[in-house]
Design a protein that fits this description.
Blueprint: E1 2-11, H1 15-25, E2 31-35, H2 42-46, H3 48-65, H4 81-103, E3 111-113, E4 116-120, E5 123-126, E6 130-139, E7 143-145, E8 158-159, H5 161-164, E9 173-177, H6 181-192, E10 196-200, H7 212-223, E11 227-229, E12 234-240, E13 243-249, E14 256-261, E15 263-266, E16 270-272, E17 300-302, E18 308-313, H8 324-339, E19 353-356, E20 361-366, H9 369-375, E21 382-388, H10 393-398, E22 404-410, E23 416-423, H11 426-438, H12 443-447, H13 457-470, H14 475-484
Parallel strand pairs: 1-2, 1-6, 2-3, 6-18, 8-15, 9-10, 9-15, 10-11
Antiparallel strand pairs: 4-5, 5-6, 7-16, 12-13, 13-14, 17-18, 19-20, 20-23, 21-22, 22-23
Helix pairs in contact: 1-8, 3-4, 3-6
């Protein structure tokens, strides 16, 4: 067995781990990157990129079907499932290939392959071949899909998004459980590609929305196109020959029905890959879910005495903000701080930004209204503005006049605080709002920016005007809202 001593050990070569390696390597050559599985990030293999490839194909089919709205006749829209999946996999492999190319820039002496587990707070066992002692350790092990026990009745017909992108062709039917980000994106895409789908949820949650107004509108809008019951009652799931039988209560009639599907797609959340690390040997303070407690601005974990540890946690493994751009940011912060244990510094965290690539798209910028109210202590310092896209000019031109925005700002200062967005191509407006939030702009400053005509952003301007009209401003109000403040 080999024994090694290094300054920094990074567990996991995904987006966070690679980012951590590049950041640490700027300051030391004594760093090793450990990976147990195949190289290639979750985003490239089974996440962001292949899902958008499937969505692009689905949207092309949908656009062809609705072409008659514009006086364009398309006699028949055919979907070649084998061709669709061949393109998805071909382009997916291209994106994975780019990640593998970047791995070649990492010296072989900096790479270890094998499953890592803690022996003690400073020592890792890698497979059965290497005992590794490290001054600092970064946990960047990512996450994996999880599902409730009820779904296990589907047997080998229970799949996750990881499995979808290995299909050679499209199935005839899929039941999706979980209308979150993954479930809504894949559910709508499969439906548009001609797959018979039903999407089931619990508690009314749809995508990332916290606003009840937006949840209800999203429920109504998506149900015009596909079956979505965001608060479903599933009675049983049972494997039958080559199919799965699901017994449920129909969303409108509440009549008990039983239908069969080729697959059940579990989109019910992800769990951090910490359970095989022997994390209890790391000497860390763990929360009720077994995840280390940590400082989100330094990514430094706390030890069992609640003191700063030499161990850091970044990316999906910490379950804080499971998004690619957040994982890269966290990797940079953790990598830099692991290289300077005696000078750990706060890293810059960006404004919260989340986008769901359905049609209409869903997005959240900043924090939800409920969260803001709680952070301000419920003192009434949050103003709200709204706009509907039902009659927005450019949206009407495009035949995509569906959606609604909720925008939030602080009374007194007029500072923009966040938004929940549902509408056409909101991915772009969400970025504009995230940049505005990052720059701490006021609503007045945002309205002073140029808005071209005719563009969808004019709808955003209408919402900002409504927000501005609802703001109470003045020195006394500013002082009061500063006193109750957003806190930490």
């Amino acid at each position: 067995m080999q024994q090694r001593n290094v300054k920094i050990a990074i567990i996991g070569a995904g987006s966070a781990g690679l980012s951590a390696w590049h950041a640490a390597h700027k300051h030391t050559d004594d760093v090793v990157l450990i990976e147990a599985g195949n190289y290639g990030t979750t985003c490239a293999r089974v996440g962001c990129m292949p899902s958008k490839l499937l969505i692009a194909a689905a949207n092309a089919a949908h656009a062809a079907r609705k072409a008659d709205m514009f006086g364009i006749t398309v006699n028949e829209v055919g979907v070649n499932g084998q061709a669709v999946m061949a393109r998805v996999k071909h382009q997916r492999d291209h994106f994975v290939g780019n990640v593998l190319k970047s791995m070649k820039t990492i010296p072989a002496s900096h790479q270890l392959h094998g499953h890592a587990r803690f022996i003690d707070p400073h020592t890792l066992m890698i497979g059965d071949h290497t005992k590794l002692a490290a001054e600092a350790i970064i946990i960047a092990t990512g996450s994996r899909p999880t599902w409730p026990k009820l779904l296990e009745g589907a047997g080998d017909r229970l799949i996750t998004n990881d499995d979808v992108f290995n299909w050679n062709t499209l199935p005839e039917s899929v039941a999706i459980v979980g209308p979150g980000v993954i479930g809504m994106e894949l559910g709508q895409a499969l439906s548009r590609l001609g797959v018979r789908t039903r999407t089931f949820g619990v508690g009314g949650v749809i995508g990332p929305f916290q606003s009840e107004t937006l949840r209800q509108l999203a429920d109504e809008t998506f149900n015009r196109e596909l079956y979505l019951d965001a608060d479903a009652s599933l009675d049983s799931i049972e494997r039958r020959e080559s199919t799965v039988a699901i017994t449920f209560y129909e969303r409108d009639s509440r009549q008990k029905l039983s239908e069969t599907f080729d697959y059940v797609l579990a989109a019910t959340g992800r769990r951090p890959n910490l359970d095989q690390l022997d994390i209890t040997q790391a000497g860390l303070k763990l929360n009720e879910h077994g995840v280390p407690e940590f400082n989100r601005f330094t990514l430094q974990c706390l030890d069992v005495q609640s003191a700063p540890s030499h161990i850091f946690i970044a990316g999906d493994a910490n379950q804080s903000a499971p998004l690619l751009h957040e994982a890269i940011t966290e990797g940079k912060i953790a990598g830099r701080n692991a290289a300077f244990l005696d000078d750990v510094q706060v890293g810059q965290r960006n404004a919260p930004l989340a986008i769901v690539f359905t049609e209409p798209q869903m997005a959240i910028v900043g924090e939800s209204r409920d969260t803001l109210d709680k952070r301000y202590g419920g003192c009434g310092c949050i103003a709200e503005g709204n706009v509907s896209f039902a009659d927005q000019g450019r949206a009407l031109v495009m035949g995509e006049n569906m959606g609604y925005f909720e925008l939030y700002a602080e009374h007194g200062s007029g500072q923009f605080l966040g938004a929940e967005l549902f509408g056409p191509q909101v991915e772009h407006m969400a970025h504009l709002l995230a940049w505005s939030l990052e720059q701490k702009l006021t609503v007045s400053q945002m309205l002073a920016m140029p808005f071209y005509h005719p563009v969808l952003e004019e709808g955003l301007r209408s919402g900002l005007h409504d927000l501005q009209a609802n703001l109470r401003q003045g020195p006394a109000i500013t002082e009061r809202c500063m006193e109750c403040g957003p806190g930490d």
